Amino acid sequence: MTPPTWLHWPASWTPADLADLRAWYKADAITGLSDGDPVSTWSDSSGGGYDLTQTSTARPLYQTNTLNGLPVVEFDGTDDYLAASTAADWKFLHDSTGSSVFIVLKAGTSADPNAAYAALGTHSGTTSDVGINVLYDDRSSLSRNDRIVSLVNNGSGSFFVLNVSSDDAFDANTYGVVAVVSDPANATLADRSSIYVNGGTAITNNSSSGTASTSNPTYALHVGSQGNGNSKLSGGIAEVVICDAVLSSTDREKVEGYLAHKWGLESNLPSTHPFRYSAP
Predict the structure, then answer these.
(1) DSSP label at 170?
(2) 99 part of a folded domain
(3) Spatial separation of the C-alpha atoms in residues 26 and 72, rounded to whole Å
(4) Which residues of the chain have pLDDT under 70?
(5) Which residue of 11, 169, 206, 238 has the fewest C-beta atoms within 10 A of its own C-beta?
(6) Would you state the pLDDT for residue 158?
(7) Residue 24: which of 59, 52, 56, 62 has the closest Cα?
(8) β-pairing, 21-26 with 99-107?
(9) Assigned domain for 6 exists
(10) Does residue 277 fall inside a structural domain?
């Protein structure tokens, strides 16, 4: 006998419920691989077809039962990265469209990496390029310790957005949820980039100015490095959610809650977060 409709629990919320979902990479959606196998393709779970690939030997590794019993993709910091195929698909990450990017990330394999690692990007880090990069930065040469950085270039020779967290924002060698909301056309400079670490308070330190570029990024999206393969990640990525809009606070918090509970990171959320104690 089928239970009456009123007895059915609602389905759990996932990023598939977002109207603005553009790309979605889940390590637990990778199939056909065993522990330690190289990842040649990370398929886009959004249905948009924006798959990431690596055809050379510079492939990250699929590691099973790593985080909350689920697999992750691990990058060696030497030559590993995955890349999309068409630069034009990623223009929304830096133009006036606005974007929201979420990454379940581990940066470094020690408590003090003294390095900069890119989680993803579409430019090389030079100001003559166009695009965005999201990095973990622990370089003592720049007096930076456990920081998250969002860099947006418009190709004019200076950073259009430079949002750098304070020290000790993101612990090395441990997984956490990083969200970067980019609104390059915002008239308030500080609000052009907001960084959220484990669902905490928005970090809005940008003071750079300029005009959002309408050009395609210099490179297609890279995951595990900057757009040209620089600043390669030593660490791991469990999931990436990319939206082509500045999400509302409600939707951003839903993504944070979904990721935190799925990957066993809910205790990192602040007690005031609406999804600290239950998933959306």
Answers:
(1) S
(2) yes
(3) 8
(4) 1-11
(5) 11
(6) 85
(7) 52
(8) unpaired
(9) no
(10) no
Q: Can you read off the two tokens belonging to residue 204?
A: 């809005």
- Measure CA 179 to chain center: 6
- Encoding tokens for residue 221? 């999206």
Task: Report whether 135 contacts 151 (CB < 8 A).
Answer: yes
Give me the domain span that covers residue 230: 11-268
Helix, strand, coil: what percent of the chain each, to 5? Answer: 15, 30, 55
Q: Which of 152, 146, 114 is nearest to 133 (CA)?
A: 152
The Cα-based distances of 69 to 18, 106, 254 in angstroms read 26, 16, 22
CA distances from 24 to 160, 238, 258, 274 (A): 26, 11, 13, 23
CB atoms < 10 A from the CB of 2, how many?
A: 6
Residue type, 106: K
**How many residues does the structure list for the chain?**
280
Q: pLDDT tens, 83-137?
A: 999 999 999 999 999 999 999 999 999 999 999 999 999 999 999 999 999 999 9
- CA 11 – CA 110 distance, rounded (Å): 39
When divided into structural domains, the chain yields a total of: 1
Check residue 4 and give its pLDDT: 54
Name residue 253's amino acid.
Answer: E
Write the DSSP string, 92-134. Answer: GGTSTT-EEEEEEEEE-SSS---SEEEEEESS-S-TTSEEEEE
Q: What is the pLDDT of residue 159?
A: 87
Helix (H) / strand (E) element for 162: namely strand 159-164
CATH assignment at residue 37: 2.60.120.200
